[in-house]
Design a protein that fits this description.
Layout (H helix, E strand, L loop, with lengths): L9 E2 L8 E2 L2 H10 L1 H18 L19 H7 L3
Antiparallel strand pairs: 1-2
Helix pairs in contact: 1-3
Amino acid sequence: MERRPELLRQVRLEGVEESFEITKEDLRSTAQKFPAAGMKAGEVYRKIENSKGADNFVSEISVDETDRAQTPAAYEFQNSG
């Protein structure tokens, strides 16, 4: 979290009336639940970024093997690279 302070923020999505806040606890909880997946996703993201260049691609992370739906904070964290 100290390395990615920009993730701690209020998020407002176009077309969605309600906004949500990403807190330190949201990030901590997500990082503890998906550590290996998060590490691998970051590795793959950086490989693509090095090949295509920053902001030249769109990434999407899918975590289907879970017992609960992803929270907006978890989705944002997982897609942060």
